[in-house]
Amino acid sequence: MRGMGNMQKMMKQMQKMQKDMQKAQEELGEKSIEGTAGGGMVTVTVNGHKEVIDVVIKEEVVDPEDIDMLQDLVLAATNEALKKVEEMTNDTMGQFTKGLNLPGGMF
Known about the structure:
The protein is an alpha+beta fold. The protein has a domain at about 30-95: Ybab, Chain: A. Helices cover about 55% and strands about 15% of the residues. The chain has two helices and three strands. It has helices at about 1-30, 65-95, and strands at about 30-35, 40-45, 50-55. A three-stranded antiparallel β-sheet has the order 1-2-3. Strand 2 (about 40-45) and strand 3 (about 50-55) form a beta hairpin. Helix 1 runs antiparallel to helix 2. The longest helix is centred in the C-terminal third of the chain and has 31 residues, at about 65-95. The protein is rod-shaped and about 75 Å long.
C-alpha cells in the first residue's frame, strides 16, 4: 500500500503543476511585446498569445511610390515581435517541463 501514497502525492503535484501552467499561460496573454523595423519607423505589438494587437507606422515612412518597402518593414517588425513572444513563452513554460523528459519538446 506504500505505492498508493506515492501515487497520490504524484497526482497532487501534477494537478498543482497543471494549475500553475494555466496561470502562466493566462499571464503570458496579458503581456505585450513589441517588434520594430526601420529604426522604429514601424512598430508591431503582439500579446503573449501571438495575436497582433497594434501596428504603428510613422508618417514619414509612408511613400506611395515605395509600398514594397513599407510592407517589408511591417513584415520584419511582426516577425521580430513573434520571435520575442516565442522566446518569452519558451522561457516561461519551459520551467514546467524541466526534467520531465517529454518527447518532441512541447514548448
